[in-house]
């Protein structure tokens, strides 16, 4: 990993954070509705009964309407809980709006922790991203939690990242540990690579 690559990724993340902070509420609501519909279609098309997703931060594409739909349709959802050792733990999503604030100020579920290997039983993994390129390279936020999780799975189900339209780009800088995704969900499209 070169210093130039690290600097390029940091600059791109900063630009994306800034753009996300400047989105209007109307844009965000319209994008949430479109992403939710794409996610419903993805789950239905793949016959998913159990998946992992995440609780979006205020600037990320919103996942809560999709999580509500999944709960109402008896789809079991595992949500990540960050740990000090760099691994993700998992808890089952429920119909309560209660959330904890985890490491780094991220929203996390309440409920019993299932351990890092609980994700091995899901049919689909939905991950956050700062950007995704047309080859399936996903750039996260630099902490490596999802890359470690995905890289440790022997048999990995399909993995889709959620980003806003302008964050699906031609190419991204890639490091050795960066785990590719199967597809991307944006407000405009559901794309499988």
TrEMBL record:
Substrate binds at residues 55, 60. GO terms for biological process: folic acid-containing compound biosynthetic process; tetrahydrofolate interconversion. Its EC number is 6.3.3.2. Keywords: ATP-binding, Ligase, Magnesium, Metal-binding, Nucleotide-binding. ATP binds at residues 9-13. One of its GO terms (molecular function) is metal ion binding. Its cofactor is Mg(2+). The keyword Ligase applies. It catalyses: (6S)-5-formyl-5,6,7,8-tetrahydrofolate + ATP = (6R)-5,10-methenyltetrahydrofolate + ADP + phosphate. InterPro entries: FTHF_cligase, FTHF_cligase-like_sf, NagB/RpiA_transferase-like. It comes from the Bacteria. It holds the Pfam family 5-FTHF_cyc-lig. Belongs to the 5-formyltetrahydrofolate cyclo-ligase family. This is 5-formyltetrahydrofolate cyclo-ligase.
